[in-house]
Amino acid sequence: MKSKILGLLVCGLLLAAAMAVPALAEDRPMPVVTGDHWMKSTPQERKAFLVGAATIIELDQEVQGKHPAKNSTIEAWSEGLSPYTFDQMVATIDKWYAAHPDKLKRPVVEVMWYEMAKPNCPASSLPTGVSEDVKAKAAQAKAAHPKAKAGK
């Protein structure tokens, strides 16, 4: 049992390390985890993926400090995902892919952003470079998708 937990932790840390590497150029694309990968993974692997993503968000918050870059989405990610527990995030992503079996090529990060984080974050936390039209769409999406209830 301990080795399984250690394996999940190592898996999450490796994912976090991979996500922490800044994009160098378009000639070095990052691997993309899609719905195909997600649906074939175990619940523990799904949660480990989300733990890795949360670790990157936390790491970026720490590095950027109190004054993040103007084009940073880190506060939007943080605020947008804050209503969810890891189990709720897994369930929400599972439900989205189950409802959209024709979209299994869509990256998990896109589902996390467009279906979970962005609808739950105030337009003020979106990067300053985002147009007012996008901010208005985010406000509409937030109204259409009430925040998840913690602990349910």
What best-fitting shape do the alpha-carbon axes yield? globular
Number of strands: 0
Describe the sheet with the most strands: none
Distance between the termini: 27 Å
What structural class do helix, strand and pairing data support? mainly alpha
- In angstroms, what is the radius of gyration? 16 Å
Instruction: Give the low-pLDDT segments.
Output: 8-25, 146-152
Helix content: 55-70%
Would you write up a description of this structure?
With 152 residues, the chain is an all-alpha fold. Helices cover 62% and strands 0% of the residues. It is built from seven helices and no strands. The chain has helices at residues 2-20, 35-40, 43-64, 74-81, 86-99, 108-120, 132-144. Helix 3 packs across helix 5 (86-99) and helix 4 crosses helix 6 (108-120). The longest helix is centred in the middle third of the chain and has 22 residues, at 43-64. It is globular. Mean pLDDT is 76; it is low at 8-25 and 146-152.
Quick recap of the structure?
The protein is an all-alpha fold and 152 residues long. It contains seven helices and no strands.
